[in-house]
Amino acid sequence: MKKLIAALIAGLFATAAFAQAPAAPEAAKTEAAAPKAKKAKKAHKAKKAKKAAEAK
Q: Sorted alphabetically, which keywords does the UniProt record give (predicted)?
């Protein structure tokens, strides 16, 4: 029983340490993808405006 309690406590410490680790690599990926998303959104707006102008 003591081994089980020791294992549970060790697991809690490991979980707490993992939860406090910084997530810097994923933030860098998100920032790198942001300019592509902005370009795509801008291109979509341009296409939509062009279609609206042609419809008139």
A: Signal
